[in-house]
């Protein structure tokens, strides 16, 4: 088996039980199983005149290689081009794109630093797997340095249609950089189709039915590889007793109350304000739901230096306070808003104890929370997943209640349906959904992508 070398913006802490985001969860589980090298930024910033060596450490079968960034790199590459240009652009939010030439310069400079640090670590027969929007040009940088190994790329977030992508300067360079890889992986067929439309309309290339794109004297394989979770591990986690969750569950059972749960990074793509408005609309349209259901929304802090994230946190805190002020009484709080990190084992217990999982992003690459919620349910009395049609997971998880996250009334009606759904229907949906997340689990994602990367 060839050694796997993974490169991403950050490396996850493989010893922590709390991770947020599909990339961290998916890669941590995969690499711990297979072993290999994981390289990324160490999360530290330094002065421009400092030149520390990459840090190398061994954790089990995984070798971690980390590099710092200068303060200028962090501002231009990470906060700038990655998260003020590519992130909103790829999530169809042109109104939030803040393009500056200096951001692009920083993005290219840091990608070059990654290539310089990675090259000495490589062995001739390594398989190199680059991840996500932070490092799109890395294959081109490695090729310029003489790298001959096969290099794959996986995009964890959506890939926008040509008319959206074309709104940002140097969009052609971005796609041409993607075509320097041997294998391109996307979460959904929609994303794959958007790439096909771009290369055919703007580059004059044709994508064949087998996913091959001819680029000069070579070809690139582009395919759909939906990321999954380690289902059995999450099931086992959900079945472990958690004393605090059990006490709270018993209290709700005595009072005859149900719980809706949402777990997301604090991000404007997740549709959190509209989700809270939908819950308030549920209480308006169905007064009988008052005092019988509560929403627990866990929002993990992220990118707090970016103004858009500060604004959404302020909006959520105001909304949750407004809903509670309007509907609460002395022994019932409709919304429990938690701004913090919750360990995965506690999340698994909370998912299992919640009658509805509410996953309503405005646009999302996959969304592993949806799959974790399914895995956590008991077949004897399963909950119901309410899922946005714009989450990548909706392409496969068709037995969930699929909603339009821009339509507050639609979400409210489906929340009521989920809360009142008969047991037999809930069990039928749960069986079908469990079958789907097992078919496309984390091991299948890893095996299917690497098989194409290794065998061509």
The helix tally amounts to: 16
Low-confidence stretches: 17-21
Average per-residue pLDDT, rounded, comes to 93
Tell me the name of the CATH class of the largest domain: Alpha Beta
Structural classification: alpha/beta
* Distance separating the two termini: 15 Å
How would you name the CATH homologous superfamily of the largest domain?
A: Glycogen Phosphorylase B
- Radius of gyration using CA atoms only: 22 Å
Task: Kindly give the count of domains.
Answer: 2
Number of strand segments? 15
Helix content, binned percent = 40-55%
Task: Enumerate the strands of the largest sheet in spatial order, edge to edge or round the barrel.
Answer: 3-4-2-1-5-6-7-9-8
CATH topology of the largest domain: Rossmann fold
The biggest sheet, with number of strands, parallel, antiparallel or mixed sense and barrel status, is: 9 strands, mixed
What percentage of the residues does DSSP assign to strands (E)? 15-25%
The shape, in one word, is globular
